[in-house]
C-alpha cells in the first residue's frame, strides 16, 4: 500500500528537507515556527510549523508515524482527501495552540514545531475509517490513549496541538466516510472548504480578541 502513497512520500521528503535546512540555517525556525504572539501578522506559520522539527528523534518519530498511517490511509482516501486531512489537521493543531495560549504567559511566546498535530489527525482518521468499515478499533484506541498520556505528561510536548489535530482530523474524516454515495465528491469538497473556513474564522476571531 505504501507504494501508492505518493503524497505521503512527498510530505516526508519535505519534512526531511526542511530539517536539513534547519540544521544548516537555524534561523529558519524563527521565521516559520508557530508562535502565538506573532501569528496574526505572519499567518503562514500556522502551516509551515508542521514541516519543522526540534531534533532528529522528533523528526524520526513523526515521519515513522506518517509513513505507517499514510501508507494505509492515502490509498483508501485518495490523494486529495488525504492531503486535505493532513493539512487541515496541521492547521487545527496550530489553531488549538493559538486559542489555548494567553497573552502574558510563557506559552504566548513559546515556539512550537512539528508535524504532530497532522499525525494525530491521521490517528483519528484511521479510527474513523476502521469504524466505517466495521473493523476492530481497539488497537488504534490503545495507541491514541498511550500518546495522549505522553502528550499531557511529557516535557516540551504541545498537547494543545495534538488535541487540535486529533479533533479536526476526525471531523474531516467523518465527512468523507459518511458522505452519501451519490454525492460523495460534492459533500467532500463542501465539507473540506467548510472546515477550512471555520478554522480560518477562528484564528481571525482570536487575533481580534487579543
UniProtKB/TrEMBL annotation:
InterPro entries given in the database record? Peptidase_S54_rhomboid_dom (IPR022764), Rhomboid-like_sf (IPR035952), Rhomboid_protease_S54 (IPR050925)
GO molecular function annotations of the record: serine-type endopeptidase activity
Q: Where are the transmembrane segments?
A: 49-70, 82-101, 107-128, 140-157, 163-179, 186-209
Q: Which family does it belong to?
A: Belongs to the peptidase S54 family.
Ranges in a coiled coil: none
The record's Pfam families line, in alphabetical order, gives: Rhomboid
* Keywords recorded for this protein, A-Z: Hydrolase, Membrane, Transmembrane, Transmembrane helix
Top-level taxonomic group:
Bacteria
Q: Does the keyword Plastid apply?
A: no
Give the protein's recorded name: Peptidase, S54 family
Domain Peptidase S54 rhomboid: from-to ranges:
41-176
Cellular compartments annotated = Membrane
Q: Which GO terms describe its cellular component?
A: membrane
Topology relative to the lipid bilayer, per the entry, is: Multi-pass membrane protein
